[in-house]
Design goal:
The complex is a heterodimer of chains A (about 290) and B (about 325). With about 290 residues, chain A is mainly α. Helix content of chain A is about 70%, strand content about 0%. Chain A contains twelve helices and no strands. The radius of gyration of chain A is 23 Å and the shape is globular. In chain B, strands 6-7-8-3-9-10 form a six-stranded mixed β-sheet, with helices on both faces. Chain B is an alpha/beta fold and about 325 residues long. Chain B starts with a strand and ends with a strand. In chain B, helix 3 packs parallel to helix 5. Chain B folds into two domains: about 220 residues, 3-Layer(aba) Sandwich (Rossmann fold), CATH 3.40.50; about 90 residues, Alpha-Beta Plaits.
């Protein structure tokens, strides 16, 4: 082909390796997600708490500044409890961002039936989902473990004593807790978005998928007087998990859940998400009968 | 080696046999895929693209197994699906570039080829508009552009003229004809419209009920039937048939003095009159005709039998 001669011309140049196609999906997905002003707005909103935490870290490490603003030293300790609050706030902001971004990643492809064309190229269904997963995981990283890491670096730099070495568990726990949460969130949000064509409805469905089972779990626990109903309560499970990962003091008494049970429950939820994606992400639907 | 080789290909979907033991080799430059609704055309295309796993048998494209080597096949195939299939939120050029990158082109080359492909199909002026603002004809053309952008070896077009007005249809047929003429791309075109296939294809595969009803080279078929003649005679028909057969004609006699024959190149219609005059046979009617694709299709569908049926069994057949 040539723009000037308007003739068909075969392509004889080099071809990228197959694994690069996953990155193509991820790159276009990332662009699509961040082309929205609402995404940018949510991102800025998600960074506001980080700014507040940076100020707190500065104050906690600078007695003169603390004296100037009239703050006492008791409430400004930068420890596991402080970073647990950081992690919780950033993680729930990540849920808000994911509920907006994931439907954009899947919705445009589903609304106009793009899957037959997309999957007729040399990319597998797994590769397609993995590309979308990378795009969402990357977006959520920007509001979870990346700002947390910035706070850790700031605290390590500002602290008069070697802070990072003595708080290694807190740092590792935060990174692990963030990664588990955004991986779970990415699978869940992509799965829900793949089943709902309308993006606004998909956003609502994502919140419902997180919070409705919590209510059901609470009812189960109350009626049957058992702690296992809380395995349906994602916010509760994650809070327990984050506390244990960071080594922060636990505040849960009789409704304590074992860590392996929480991990198994999260893994099962992810498997259900993968099954939903496997059912939905197809070039062709087969009608039975 | 053919472009597409089918060897006992059987595909069952949802407990139903959609393709039933297809065997054949397609080697034309432009292959038409014909058949009524539910014949299995789209299923065959989907199987060639590796979307469906054959229940039995194999399908090979350019010698590669359609399921096992599907990534390799898809790299060399451009596919234009029947229904709307695009990302409406993207501009035309971005969409085509995206598809070209997925096919394996580096980003810069994909952008260049996307522009070229859009100009080539006639969407150059609207390439920065979002795809969901395109008309139906434009949407068909952008599907063709994305199928062409990466320079495939095989272009699979599923109902390319679906929903197009006569002008747009003519433009689409013209484009397909140009691509065929260029020679580096083989075409597989599925259509309900015999006219479309007739205009651009040199080979046709006709499916009926998931089976192959006909697989033929259209040009060769026409050439072989160019001297197909039907006669209505009165007199010693059997003796006349025998004499005509000695000239090298394929000949079949039917009750009522009807004779069907295919003349070899060295025999002319005049020779038949000479033999008839010698034997005192009257030729009441002579119908000489050339098979159209419609004839081939109807025959394959069973509405116009290629060989005489039970009710029309020839009294005398000589080949």
């Amino acid at each position: 082909m040539s723009v000037y001669r308007l003739q068909y011309r075969a392509y004889t140049g080099k071809v990228t390796p197959l694994w690069m196609r996953i990155l193509v999906i991820a790159r276009y997905g990332f662009n699509e997600a961040w082309s929205s002003k609402i995404t940018v707005g949510l991102f800025i909103l998600s960074l506001l708490p980080t700014l507040v935490f940076l100020v707190i870290i500065y104050l906690s490490n600078n007695p003169m500044a603390r004296a100037l603003v009239g703050a006492g030293s008791s409430g400004l300790a930068v420890n596991a409890r402080f970073f647990l609050v950081v992690l919780q706030i950033q993680s729930w902001l990540a849920l808000v961002l994911a509920s907006w971004v994931a439907p954009r990643l899947m919705g445009f492809d589903l609304a106009d039936n793009a899957l037959p064309i997309l999957l007729s190229h040399p990319i597998s269904r797994f590769g397609y989902v993995l590309g979308k997963f990378v795009a969402l995981f990357g977006s959520l990283s920007l509001v979870t473990w990346v700002p947390i890491l910035i706070l850790v670096l700031d605290q390590s730099y500002s602290s008069p004593v070697p802070w990072a070495a003595s708080n290694f568990r807190v740092i590792a726990g935060m990174i692990a807790g963030s990664l588990i949460w955004i991986a779970f969130l990415s699978v869940l949000c992509l799965a829900v978005s793949s089943w709902v064509k309308w993006r606004v409805v998909a956003t609502g469905a994502i919140f419902a998928a997180v919070f409705v089972p919590s209510g059901v779990g609470a009812i189960v626990s109350e009626v049957l007087r058992t702690r296992w109903g809380f395995l349906l309560n994602v916010p509760y499970m994650m809070s327990v998990l984050w506390q244990r990962l960071l080594g922060a003091p636990e505040v849960f008494g009789k409704w304590d859940l074992p860590t392996p049970a929480i991990l198994v429950m999260l893994a099962l939820a992810c498997l259900a998400g993968v099954a939903m994606l496997n059912k939905r992400v197809r070039a062709r639907e087969v009608v039975r009968g | 080696m053919g472009i597409i080789e089918l060897n006992g290909l059987t595909v069952e979907l949802g407990g139903r046999t959609v393709l039933d033991g297809l065997t054949g080799e397609l080697q034309g430059r432009a292959i038409g895929l014909l058949g009524p609704n539910g014949a299995g055309k789209s299923t065959l295309i989907n199987t060639l693209l590796g979307f469906h796993l054959p229940t039995r048998g194999t399908a090979r494209v350019f010698g590669l197994d359609a399921h096992r080597d599907r990534a390799q096949i898809r790299g060399g195939v451009g596919y234009m699906p029947e229904n709307d299939s695009f990302i409406g939120n993207m501009s035309g050029v971005r969409f085509v570039r995206y598809m070209a990158e997925l096919a394996g082109l580096p980003a810069e080359m994909a952008l260049e080829r996307a522009h070229e492909a859009l100009f080539y199909v006639g969407l150059g002026e609207v390439r920065y508009r979002k795809v969901n603002t395109y008309s139906l004809g434009m949407k068909q053309l952008i599907k063709l552009a994305q199928a062409l952008a990466h320079g495939p070896k095989l272009l699979i077009l599923d109902e390319p003229t679906n929903g197009l007005d006569p002008m747009a249809r003519q433009r689409m047929i013209q484009l397909i004809g140009e691509i065929r003429k260029e020679g580096s791309v083989r075409l597989l075109i599925s259509s309900h419209l015999l006219r479309d296939i007739d205009e651009v294809c040199d080979e046709v595969l006709i499916l009926k009920g998931g089976r192959i009803a006909a697989l033929c080279n259209i040009e060769a078929e026409r050439r072989s039937n160019r001297s197909f003649i039907e006669l209505e005679t009165v007199g010693a028909t059997d003796r006349f048939s025998t004499s005509v057969s000695t000239l090298g004609c394929e000949c079949a006699s039917f009750p009522g003095g009807r004779i069907k024959l295919v003349l070899p190149e060295h025999v002319e219609a005049r020779d038949l009159y000479v033999i008839a005059a010698e034997q005192g046979v009257q030729i009441r009617r002579m119908n000489q005709r050339r098979d159209s694709l419609e004839d081939i299709f109807l025959r394959a569908m069973g509405n116009m039998p290629a060989t005489p049926t039970e009710t029309e069994r020839p009294a005398h057949v000589r080949l």
